Amino acid sequence: MTLTIEGTDLSLAYGYHHALKNLSFRLSENKIYGFLGRNGAGKTSLLSILASFREQTSGSLTIDGKAPFENPHVMQQVAFIYSKDYKDESDNVKEMLESVERYRPHFDGEYAQYLIQKFNLPLDKKIKEFSKGMQSALNVTIGLACRAPITIFDEAYLGMDAPTREIFYQALLEDQAKHPRIMIISTHLVSEMDYLFDEVLILHKGSVVLQEEYESLITKGVSITGAANEVDEFVQSMKLLNVQQLGNTKSVMVYGELTDRERKHAQQRGLEVGPISLQDLFIHLTEEGN
């Protein structure tokens, strides 16, 4: 089942503050989409509209041509997993999973039990007694086991240690391969999670500044390393992202693809040309001056 999400001139205002401004985008394939943006960029505001938590001020957002807000059929197709405070939750894991299963038509109880074991979560302990990391592990278990056609993880890993996050990432990739759907991941851990993404959307000041396939995006910049004077001469007309120097060796990150001729020229100068990371591009595209 493949759904289509489309936002057109989408805006959301809180009083005089515009969280989203005439934002447009389209998701129409079963992929893992990385939603990136600095604090206040509008990621959670956009995702909360998608999940029917609130309605936009103007413009439209549709799922298969239907507005999700207060539409029970559409809402059932979306799972929105975010950091929750379970301090008043008296249920244990077993009771929580039974409750979720009643309302989620695609829920896979056996798979949920498999993940509970992977995360080493106690079935009979009250959830309010869990650590923050254990609560987050339960959240992502519910998100994956729901198998909703649109599954959203909004900073859902908060509190998890590195080994637990790795269990989550591997489970996500494996389940996406077996049960493809639109998977949206909003994160600040760009360098840690970039390998998960098929496509990337970067939000900045309430607008989408870029939507592109991950593999294509990371060709948008290169690193140039070598003797400082050779590097300086080679990059003098290019857009620099970052400069580092140790002794006479200099490494410069530039924004823009190199032509075959430029790459050959760099090789002739004894310069090393390499890729740059998604995080470096993200930082550049969301700089305050942009």
Verbal overview:
The protein is α/β, with parallel strands linked by helices and 290 residues long. 33% of the residues lie in helices and 30% in strands. It contains eleven helices and 13 strands. The strands form three sheets. A six-stranded mixed sheet has the order 5-6-7-3-8-9, with helices on both faces. A four-stranded antiparallel sheet has the order 11-12-10-13, with helices on both faces. Strands 2-1-4 form a three-stranded antiparallel sheet, with helices on one face. A hairpin with a 2-residue loop joins strand 8 and strand 9. Helix 4 runs antiparallel to helix 5 and helix 5 packs parallel to helix 6. The model has no long low-confidence stretch (mean pLDDT 92).
How would you characterize the largest beta sheet?
Answer: 6 strands, mixed
Radius of gyration: 22 Å
**In DSSP terms, counting alpha (H) and pi (I) runs of 4 or more, how many helices?**
11
State the CATH superfamily name of the largest domain.
P-loop containing nucleotide triphosphate hydrolases
Strand segment tally: 13
Given the C-alpha coordinates, what overall shape results? globular
The structural class is alpha/beta
Helical fraction equals 25-40%
Oligomeric state: single chain
The CATH architecture of the largest domain would be 3-Layer(aba) Sandwich
